[in-house]
Amino acid sequence: MSGGVERPPSALVLHGIDDVDDYIWANEGEEALPLDTFTHVFHLMQRGNQAFRERRYEEAIHCYIKANSIKPSDPIILSNRSTAYIRYSKYLIERPPSTSEDSPLNGLDPTTHAELALKDAEKLINLRSNAVKPYLLKASALILLERYEVARGVLLSGLHMDPSSISLQSFLQDLGNIQSSLMGSRYHEGPELSDEFNCSLCLKLFYEPITTPCGHSFCRSCLFRSMDRSNKCPLCRKVLFISPRTCSISVTLNSIIQKSFPEEYAARKSDHESMTNFGVDLLPLFVMDVVIPCQKFPLHIFEPRYRLMVRRIMEGSRRMGMVIVDPSTNSLADFACEVEITECEPLPDGRFYLEIESRRRFRIVRAWDQDGYRVAEIEWIQDNNPLEGTPEREELLELTRNASEYTRSWMRRAKQAAQYDQRKLEQIHNLETMMPTVQDPEGFSFWLVTLSNLRPQERLELLHMRDTKERIKRGLIYLNTEHGCRVQ
């Protein structure tokens, strides 16, 4: 089945996205960063703002993402990144088809950029609920996602906060106009359910349908699972230059299915979500190496089975487990670590570039194969820590504070040694951003051992360990031995 992608009219003027805010040199108070770290953020924001004003939106977004990884929840960073996502999404939507054919783009599609803009705007509203711009950004992102009624509610909430805002009043009027124009184009009679609405790959009702340039429609997950093995259309075998993030869902076809066959669609959605949302105690597994909590690192995904797994994860919780094959048993290690995908970039050849942050450790209760990769039932593991208010707890906190002071001194020396090596400085900044507070001794103990280059078996032993105090002491020994520094 062929069909175009229905989009908001390009004539619609979105509000609050004409420019980004300048980043002010202010680094004071409890959340102040070290001077060199703040300087790095400041320069990233300057480069991002310049790129935005020169309409190099992808470069601007990249700078804002880096700045946010160092200083999360900064209102200016979130606001500027949301604005850049919206502007780039609007640019992609309004890009003429002829231009797309002559100069195809790789990267995220307009819908994904709008969704990312929406997330940043929602965070911004929580931080600055008394400001107008967060409401403008959230409404703009919702309009790009064609969620007009929700956008109207956001604008009304903003006007409740500031009834005199001209920007919100004007935006609400523009939104009313676009909704009125859309009312005349609604479908009055729904089609009958037939094979025309079934995917030719899974033989089920379309879910998140994509229409290819050659005019054939498939479920998004079905098409890209097929393209893991061949980049040709499954029906006519024409070569397809598309990726999961550059090809948008056919909004028109999807809307017809949802409105005409609501019960069948609900059942199809439930079936799909059972494959993407694994539940609290189930995790898909990436078999590679031993990972411990409080790490941050890149990962390239190229195997077809893991490409499928990553796409399903990104549609669900964005989390998976990382585990090693234990050489002593030649089977999966019984302890592993949950990781979260914080950034996901599809590459033109079908691979994924991921940014990963490790979270919690777990024990594998049982594991099985699902579509070529492993899935496990798990049990979350915590240390056996002393109770709050006990002398043992105070002793543990004191050890954590002393270890924290020592490692901060080590970090300062490491920065000085790497002051002319930008790559090493960024690695140190990444380590700093993952450092837990001293009020979380268990988290700090894991972060501490990430500073040393340990063998897989040593990392696996640390995952098994349930004694926070012992892990901190061992981390200090590793650091002292590896770097030749005397532990205070």
From TrEMBL:
Domain RING-type residues, every copy: 199-237
SUPFAM superfamilies in alphabetical order: PUA domain-like, RING/U-box, TPR-like
Molecular function (Gene Ontology), one example: zinc ion binding
Residues spanning the signal sequence: none
GO cellular component, one term: cytoplasm
Top-level division of the source organism's lineage: Eukaryota
Gene3D superfamilies membership: 1.20.58.1480, LON domain-like, Tetratricopeptide repeat domain, Zinc/RING finger domain, C3HC4 (zinc finger)
Pfam families: LON_substr_bdg (PF02190), zf-C3HC4_2 (PF13923)
Keyword Zinc-finger annotated: yes
Lon N-terminal domain mapped to chain residues: 280-483
UniProtKB keywords: Metal-binding, Zinc, Zinc-finger
Record protein name field: LON peptidase N-terminal domain and RING finger protein 1
